[in-house]
Amino acid sequence: MENPFHEFHVHKLRATLNITYSLFYFLALTFIFYYRSAAFFLKKATGVLFAAELVFSFLWAIKQPMYWRPITRTVFPEKLPKDEKLPGIDVLICTADPNKEPTFEVINTVISAMSLDYPAHKLSVYLSDDAGASVTLNAMKQAWVFASWWLPFCRKYHLKTICPQAYFQNPEDQEESSCQTNDMDFVQHSMLLEEKYEAFKQQVRSNKLSGDVDNNNNTSRDHPPLVQVINENCIEDGAVTLNPEAGEMPLLVYVSREKRPSHPHCFKAGALNALLRVSSIMSNSPYTLILDCDMYCNDSISARQAMCFFIDPKISSSLGWVQFPQKFHNISDTDIYDSQLRVTWPVYWPGADGLQGPCIIGTNVYIKRKVLYSINITTDDGINLKEVRSSLGPSNELTNSVVQNDKLNKTVKDKEVSSVMVQEAHFLASCTYEKGTMWGQKVGFCYGTIVEDAKTSIRLQNKGWRSIYLNPTRPQFLGSATTSLNEMLVQGIRWYGGLLDLCLSKYCPLIYRPSRMQFLQKMYYSWMVLLALDFIPVLCFAIIPPICFLYGIPVYPKLSDPGFVAFAFVFVSTQLKHLSDVVVYSGGSVSAWVNEQRTWMAKCLSCYLYGTIVCIITKLGLHEATFTLTDKLQGDTTNWYDKGIYDFRTSKMFLVPIVTAVILNLCCFIGGVARLIVIRNWDAMFGQMLFSLYVLVMGFPVLEGVLLRKDNARISVSASMVSTILSLLLLSLGYLILRH
Ligand SMILES: O=c1ccn([C@@H]2O[C@H](COP(=O)(O)OP(=O)(O)O[C@H]3O[C@H](CO)[C@@H](O)[C@H](O)[C@H]3O)[C@@H](O)[C@H]2O)c(=O)[nH]1
Ligand SMILES: [Mn+2]
C-alpha cells in the first residue's frame, strides 16, 4: 500500500450520476427561462415568479459542486509511530453559562477529553468558563479526583465510551465493554467506579445548589481573569478521594478570561482566543482539539485518527484541520425537526471534502495551532519576529512559544506549570490584552460575527489551508441537539443570519481577495453563506401560484403543452434527489424524508426569513448581534419531541409566516378546486393544483395544530387568528392586483 496511515475513496458512480442529473436539470431550467422570458411581459404574476425562479436556480447551481466529488476516508491509527513520536494535543473546551449548560455535563465533556487514548503527557485539557462561575471551578477539582479513578479504568479495559455519564447511563455501553473483556475483575472494577461516579455526581449537584447565589448574570459579564491549574494540590477533602495509583494524568487547566461590560467579549471566538494564548505558554501543543461543552468524546480513538492525516508528510504541510461530524445523543426515532441534520454528514460534508475540504463547524475539530497564528503556509525560511510580536501582542512568553512551535515539534511539556507562568496567563486572559493586536482579525478565531467557525474557515481556506473530513462509523463525538421547534428556530436565526452577514462583508467567498480557494470550493462556501436566501423562492412559491389558482390564472404551461415537462421535471426530480439523499445515502426512511421536507419549509419560512431580516437590521446598525446560547436543559420539550408531536410553543412571530402559508394554500385549494369543477379547465390549472396539494400535505401538522389539537403545544389561537387575517389580506391584495 502506498500510504500507511489513511486512504480515501472517490465515489465515482455517485459523482457521475450527480453530474448527469445536474446537466439535465440545467437544461430544464434553461427551458423554463426561455418559456418565462417569452411570456414575461404578458402577466404581472409570472414576472415575480420568474424572479423567484431565477433566485432558486442560482441557489441550486451553487449547491451542485458539492455533489460532484464525494469522498470518504479510512484511517489506520494502529500504524501510527510509537507514542513518543506523536505530537502533543491541547483540548480547548468552552462553556458560557452554568444555568443553561448543566455543570455536570460540561464536566463530563472535560473528563471524556482527558480520557482520550493518547499519551497523558502529550494531552492537555483547558476549559474556558465565560461565566467565571465558582460552581464550574469546584466541579473541575472534583472532576480531577474522579478522573484519577476513571482514567486508569478506561486505560485498563480500553473503554470506548469514555464519557462517564454516557457509560453509566447506557447499559449497552457497559455490556459492550464487558463483552470485550469478559471477566469478573472488570465487573467489580466497573461497580467500584459506579459508586465513585454517584458520589461525584452528588457532590457536583449539591455544590451547584449551594453555589447558585454567586452565579447571577452580573458576575458572568463582569469578572477578573482567573487561570488555575487543577491538580492534587488544589483538592480539598470530598466525598471521593484521590486514587493513589492514578498514573500519569493530562494537564487540566481552568480559564475564565476577564470580562467587563465596557469591553466587547466577542462570544465564543473571544473565549477560544484566550484559551489559545494561555495554552500556548503552558503546554503549547502543535495541535488543538476544539470542543463545545455539550459535545463529549464518545470514543477514545479520535486523536489518533486525526493524527493519521497530520503526520502524513505528503499532505501535512498544507493541512489545516480535520473535522469530525456533529452527531447527537438525544435524537428520537421520529426526529421530527431533523435535529440530527441527517443529510449533512453523509452527503454534503463528503462532497465538501472532495473540494479542498470542509468548513470548520466550531466543534469536533483538530486544528493545527500554527494555522491559527497566521504564520504563512510557505514560511519555512525564518519568521519575522517583530511582525509576529506586533500581531500577537505584548507578551514575550507568547511570542517565544509561538515561534518555537513553528520551528519544530518542540513541545516543552513541563507538568510543573510555574507560578510565573500562571501569572503571565492572567495577563493573557485579561480583556485589554488584545488591544492593538491582530487577535480576532488575522490571528486566532475571527471576531465581528456570531459564526466564528465559518468566518475563520473562509479566511484560512483563502490562504490556502486545506482540510479533511472524517466520519467514522462509531461517532467520535456526541452532543445535545436542539429538540424543540423554538430552540431550532432561535439557533437557525443565529446561524443563517450570521452566515448571510458574512456574505455582505469582504468575507463573501465569491469576492474575497486574495484567494487561494478553487472555484468550486468558492461555490460550496457561497452556498453555505447564502442558505438563508432559500426563503425568497419558497415564500413566492407558497403565495403566488395558489392565489393565481384561486382566481383561475394559469402560471405554468398546460398539461398538454410539452413545456409542462420541464417544470414537472424540476419539481419531481428535486423531490426525488432529496429522497435519494435521505434514503439511499443517509439511511433514512420515507417518513424521515417527509419530516425533512417539512422542517426545510418551516425553516425557510421562519429562520431563513428572520435570519435575513436580523442580518439586514444588524447591518443597518439597528440591532446588536448577540450569541443566544441554546438551552441544554431538557425540560418537557423533550417529551413532545420524543413522542414525535410538533411542539408549537414558540413566539407568534416565528409561527405566523408558516401558518399563513398553510392557511392560504388551504383556502386557495378549496376555492380553486371548486372553480375547476365548474369551469373545467383542468389542463391549464393542473400544475398549480398539485402544487397547493403538496403544500397542504407537507403542512399537515400545521393544520392539525390549528384545527384539531387541544393540547397546550398546539398553535395558539392568537397565532391562528393573525395568520388567517394575513391570508385574507394576501387574497384581497391578489384580487386587486390580478383581477384589475
Ligand atoms: O459567549 C459565548 C457564547 C458561546 N460560548 C460557547 O460556544 C459553544 C456553542 O454554543 P451553543 O449554545 O451550544 O450553540 P450551538 O448553536 O449549538 O453551536 C454551534 O454553532 C456555533 C456557531 O454559531 C459554533 O460555534 C458551535 O461550535 C456549534 O456547535 C458552547 O460551548 C458555549 O458555551 C462561549 O464560550 N462564549
Ligand atoms: Mn451546542
From TrEMBL:
<dbReference type="InterPro" id="IPR029044">
    <property type="entry name" value="Nucleotide-diphossugar_trans"/>
</dbReference>
<keyword id="KW-0961">Cell wall biogenesis/degradation</keyword>
<feature type="transmembrane region" description="Helical">
    <location>
        <begin position="654"/>
        <end position="678"/>
    </location>
</feature>
<keyword id="KW-0472">Membrane</keyword>
<feature type="transmembrane region" description="Helical">
    <location>
        <begin position="41"/>
        <end position="62"/>
    </location>
</feature>
<protein>
    <submittedName>
        <fullName>Cellulose synthase-like protein G2</fullName>
    </submittedName>
</protein>
<feature type="transmembrane region" description="Helical">
    <location>
        <begin position="523"/>
        <end position="544"/>
    </location>
</feature>
<feature type="transmembrane region" description="Helical">
    <location>
        <begin position="715"/>
        <end position="738"/>
    </location>
</feature>
<feature type="transmembrane region" description="Helical">
    <location>
        <begin position="685"/>
        <end position="703"/>
    </location>
</feature>
<dbReference type="InterPro" id="IPR005150">
    <property type="entry name" value="Cellulose_synth"/>
</dbReference>
<keyword id="KW-1133">Transmembrane helix</keyword>
<dbReference type="Pfam" id="PF03552">
    <property type="entry name" value="Cellulose_synt"/>
</dbReference>
<keyword id="KW-0328">Glycosyltransferase</keyword>
<keyword id="KW-0812">Transmembrane</keyword>
<keyword id="KW-0808">Transferase</keyword>
<feature type="transmembrane region" description="Helical">
    <location>
        <begin position="15"/>
        <end position="35"/>
    </location>
</feature>
